[in-house]
Design brief:
Number of domains: 2
Shape: flat
Distance between the termini: 59 Å
Radius of gyration: 28 Å
Order of helices and strands: EHHEHH
Helix content: 55-70%
Largest sheet: 2 strands, antiparallel
Strand order of the largest sheet: 1-2
Number of strands: 2
């Protein structure tokens, strides 16, 4: 008589977080950005501010020009929830080059165990691993 049934309702629904798109400064064409910012800043006449309100107005104009240029020239990124935010195009290129060397070293390992490409692959692998650690 000392056991009482317990009814438990557990909600195990996962909450899906949706990230809003952010500016992708890595893929920005900086020449186009400088050109666009230069065109917007040419409209403003820089002067010595008379007082703090005049300085605030100038600062707001310059900040607005920078924000407008970012909106028009910087592409947006839509990150996957599984992406590695620290990964870059340089690491992709280094990984591709490393895999090419790995294939060549694998083919040479049985016939020519002392082939120089095997040592080159080991050195390239160590450098690549260090680049990944630095990027993280």
């Amino acid at each position: 008589m000392d056991h009482f049934p317990i009814v438990s309702c557990i909600d195990l629904a996962m909450i899906c977080m949706v990230e809003e798109p952010k500016s992708n400064f890595r893929d920005t064409d900086w020449e186009e950005f400088r050109r666009g910012l230069g065109e917007k800043l040419d409209k403003f006449r820089l002067r010595d501010p008379a007082d703090s309100q005049d300085f605030d107005v100038m600062l707001a104009e310059i900040s607005g020009a920078i924000c407008e240029t970012i909106e028009t020239c910087v592409p947006l990124r839509h990150p996957s929830p599984h992406c590695k935010r620290w990964w870059s195009k340089e690491l992709t290129q280094a990984h591709t080059a490393l895999r090419t060397l790995a294939k060549k070293a694998y083919l040479m390992r049985k016939c020519f165990p002392d082939h120089p490409i095997i040592n080159e692959f080991h050195q390239a692998r160590n450098i690549y691993v260090q680049h990944v650690k630095d990027a993280r």
